[in-house]
Amino acid sequence: MAILEHLEPGRVFRFFEQMCAIPHGSGNTAAISDWLVAFAKERALEVHQDALGNVIIIKDATPGYEHADAVIIQGHMDMVCDKAPDCTKDMTCEGLDLVVDGDTVYAKGTTLGGDDGIAVAMALAVLDDTSMQHPRVEAVFTVDEEIGLLGAAGLDVSPLKGRMLLNIDSEVEGIFTVSCAGGNMSRCTLPISREPFSGSYLSIKVGGLQGGHSGVEIDKGRGNANMLMGRLLYAISKKTEMRLISVNGGQKDNAIPFETTAVIAVQHAEAAREVCAEMEHHFQNEYRVTDSGVLVTVSEAAESMPLDAESTNRVLCLLTCAPNGIQAMSADIAGLVQTSLNLGVVKTSADKLEASFCVRSSVGSQKDMLVDRLRALAMQLGGTVEVFGDYPGWEYRPESKLRELMVEIFTEQYGHAPKVEAIHAGLECGMFADKLPGLDCISFGPDLTEIHTCRERMHIASVQRTWKLLTEILRRLQ
C-alpha cells in the first residue's frame, strides 16, 4: 500500500514515493538513473543518459508556447544516507520506510532524501502531466552532488537549449538563491627534516571552539584552532628555544577546526607553560562572544625526534602568515561573503607537513588570487601547493528576467516578497552557469528540516505551495 497516495499534489508525492523505494545514495545511483530513463521511454520523451548516470529528459512545448524560450528544471538524484544507531536497514539495497506525521513526511530510522528527491519528483510530475502549459522543458537529473558535484561537473550539456534554469535544491521556502561560491581544496605541502634536540617535551592542545561550516559560518567570527595554534607556537618560540615535533588539527578542509594538538620540545618548559596561560587568556578575551569555551591545555609528552630549527621556523611561518577567513565582501549583496579561505586540516608525518585550505569565492578571479597567494607563500618556504576538486562559482546577475518574474509570482501567491540571497557555499548552479554562458538561474524549494540526518522532515504544505509556484512560473514563461 502506498503511504503517500492521499497527499497532494498527487503526482509529486507518487513519484517521490517510487523514488524512495529505490536505493540512491551517493555513488549508488545506477538503479535510479535507469528508472528515470525507463520513465522517459514509457512516455516517448527524448532522453539522454551518460556514462556517469546523469539523465536529461526533454518534453516539447505545449500549444501556444512553441516560440517561448526553453526552461531547464534541475536537481540531483543522489541522497546522503544516514541512519539512527539502532536502525538495521541496509540503505545500499533496501528502500526507505516512509511515515506521514501531521504535516510532515519522514523515513523511519534513516534520512529521507528530500534533498534532492523533491526536485526529481516535481520535474517528473511536470513531464508526466499532459494538461499543464509550459515551454520546452529540459529536466536534468545529476548524480553524486553530495560528494563533490561530480555529476554536474561531467555533464554534457549539448542537448540543452535552455538558458533559464530552475534549480529545486533549496531547503527553506521563500528564499531564492541567486549566487553561490566556487571553490577548491588547496593543499600546501612543506618538506621537513628532523634532528635531536635536548629539552623538555610538551603536548599542547587548543580546544573548546565551536568550529562550523567554512561556507555558511565563516562570517560568525569563530576561532580556527589551526590558526590559533600557529599564534601560540610562535609566541612560545619568542620566549624559549623550541622545536616542533608535530601539529595536527581539523577533520575536513571545509570545516572550521575546533581542536588542534601540537607536540614540542623546549629549552625552558616553565616559560612555555606561562606563554600558554597568557595566550589562553588572550583567546578567551578575543573570542568571549563566539567561542567562550576556548581552552589551552598543556601536559608532558614522550620524547621523540623533533624537526630541526629551519623546518620548525618554516612551519611556524606558514601557520602564522597564511591567509585565513574572510578576504572580501560582496559589493552587490549586502552582508554576503564574496571570498574566503579556511585552514581546515593540518597533518604532520615523518618528512612533511600538509595544510589543507578550503578556498571559496563567487568571483573566479579572486579564487585564483587566493591560490596564487598560497603558492607564493609555499614557494618561499620550500613547499608546493596542489589544487583538488575545483568548481566554478555562480556570479550574481544584476539583471535577471527570471528573478523578476519569480519574485512577482511569489509576491502574488504569498502576499509578501521572497528573500533573495546569495550563499557562500557551492551549488550545482555554478557548474551550469560555467557550462551555459548567459544562464539565468534561480535556486528554490520547499521546507526540508534537518537534512542529512535521520531526523530529516519534508513539510507537506510547503511542497504544495512550492509546486503551485513552479507550475505558475512555467505557465507564464510564454
Please give a structural write-up.
By secondary structure, this protein is α+β, with helices and mostly antiparallel strands. Helices cover 31% and strands 27% of the residues. The chain has 11 helices and 23 strands. The protein has helices spanning 10-20, 30-42, 114-128, 150-154, 225-239, 269-286, 309-321, 364-380, 401-414, 428-435, 460-476, and strands at residues 46-49, 55-59, 71-76, 98-101, 104-107, 137-142, 164-167, 175-180, 182-191, 200-207, 212-213, 242-249, 255-256, 260-266, 295-300, 325-329, 337-348, 352-361, 384-391, 419-423, 440-443, 448-449, 457-459. The protein has a 6-stranded mixed β-sheet, with helices on both faces. Strands 16-17-18-9-19 form a 5-stranded antiparallel β-sheet. Strand 17 (337-348) and strand 18 form a beta hairpin. The longest helix has 18 residues, at 269-286. The protein starts with 9 loop residues before the first helix and ends with a helix. 46% of the residues are buried. The mean pLDDT is 96.
Radius of gyration: 26 Å
Largest sheet: 6 strands, mixed
Helix-and-strand structural type: alpha+beta
Give the N-to-C terminal Cα separation. Answer: 40 Å
Strand order of the largest sheet: 1-2-6-3-7-21
The DSSP helix count reads: 11
Instruction: Tell me the fraction of residues in β-strands, as a range.
Output: 25-35%
